[in-house]
Fold this protein.
Amino acid sequence: MSTELKNPSLLAKNGLDDSTYYEEITQTQIFDSATPEIQLAWEDIRYQVTIKKKSQEILKGVSGSANPGEFLAIMGLSGAGKTSLLNIVAGRIKSCSSTKVSGTVKANGIDINQLNFQKYCAYVTQEDILLPFLTVREALTFSAGLRCAGSSKEIKDKVDGILHELRLTGIADNMIGDAMFKGISGGEKKRTSIGVELISEPQIIILDEPTSGLDSFTADILVDLLIQQAKKGRTVIATIHQPSTSIFKKFNKLILLSEGLTMYQGSAAKSRKYFSQLGYKTPRLVNPAEYYIKLLHITNRYELTKEESEILENLKMAYEGHADKKDKIRDLGTAQLNLYMASDVGSIKKILILTKRSFINNVRNPGPSQITIGFYIVTSILLDLLFHDLGNDYEAIHTINGVMYFLAIMCIQIGNTGSAMTFPVERTTFFKEYGQGLYGALTYYITKMIAELPLQVVAALVASPLLYFPLGLDLTAEKFLTFVFIIFLSQWMGHGLGYIVGALCSSILIANAAVPMVSSPLIAYEGLMDNTEAFKWVQYFSPFRWSFQALCVNQYTDMDWDCDPRGPKCDPLNDLGFSDSIGMSLLWCILFSVGARSIAFIELKVLGLKFKNL
Ligand SMILES: Nc1ncnc2c1ncn2[C@@H]1O[C@H](COP(=O)(O)OP(=O)(O)OP(=O)(O)O)[C@@H](O)[C@H]1O
């Protein structure tokens, strides 16, 4: 790679004026006059992070702009600061104890902090945040329902329009899927993620590496779609890793970042000439994007080689020499911004939409639905085979205690793992939509619980008769119905415990590891192995204890005993130390369920604040 003198003064000498290499904004597109065009301009952005008392400057005073009608690509080596810049421009990073952000970002000349910026700006993250058990059409319809007021017909038309525009019509009724359940392809998922955001017709679309993980053909189609969005007058900004030559040719504008500094900003088409005149000529038949990345390559950012620092210094000086040649701030009419308001959807409608969405996603998820009910059926049959007709004499007490102990653990663990396995995925969607101000934490939480109830009721109704009658438990209608209620409450407590764990876990993997860690100590306080006085208060926080107590109290109270009058007293409740009535036992279960849900809600609310303030 050539490192000959690349003095910025050579630019002028070589006949490079700003109009040559710096993009002039040309309004080539016909904009829809009903929607405002937004120019985003950022000035002297600095971003500093402090880790273990060591500060690192990620962005070192970056300025730039993105214009309506343009596709702006931000490129640079891994770690150059692309995502950081994108997040700051989208208003997603603010200063906090470990990060310091300075500089301004303006939309049509107005500081974005003074605007309800989220209403104008769609942000598509690198990982697709979609509920896996919805179809593409459902994902778009629910998104439209939450974001846009309008009749069902209007929503349907809007969704059909987006499906068509994003070429998703053919797979509209396919399930999205996730790592475990195969659904649509990566490119289709990415287009669905974009569609979910586009539905509210945002004027700015910001995407973090939308082509990552896609083959070159799919990436090409995706970029074409984004170019089409830009042609509608939207401002499109994306970080792109390794674009193909054909994709590179489609960029309207290019920003090259290295080490937190802008190395180039301007027309992508004219970048070749710019670099060439600085002495860095892209070889024939070589993809310019690839060449620029190689040019900016550094092996160790803390110890640059002589050649690396020379290239960076040259590019930096060349860019700085023309730093005043920024895009003109366009007068796009700030009034338009003030007038433009995304329509608000009523709270009742949002509650109905969220409940329906959560219900569908839950019912189709084999974890909490088919697998849970199948597990109940198989385990119940197994228990029946092992312990059928338990009896009502003294000899039976030991076995009945064991069966109740097992049932309490089984029902709670089914609920617990069920929640912990679904919550980490759902909460990502919640954080995103909560951050966008689509609904409140309480609305989400209540609708989630309502949506999950039917499956929990069905599971209790399926499992209870399969267990109660073959096991020969005390046969009265009242006791049977109470048993059904206890099985339901046990699962419900389990779900509550799962919410506490799941709300804190960012992935199912972590949740799976955390569930046994939390539940195992609580099982020790269930009440059967009551041989320790240590930390006895823990029993009040053990759902296993309350479930076991309720099952035993229901079975043993007023039981028709067949005990040997000369043998030991048939008083298992006394032996177990359970003095509460059945009403009180049920109340403990309800109190635990409500308490656990309240704790999980507080966790969600506190964690959500981080996203809300963005
Ligand atoms: N909040 C943070 N805490 C610690 N380090 C951070 C933080 N944000 C960014 N960084 C660091 O700043 C550098 C730039 O990160 P950024 O994600 O912006 O890079 P990037 O150019 O998007 O990289 P990539 O292409 O690999 O995604 C990285 O070294 C990253 O580790």
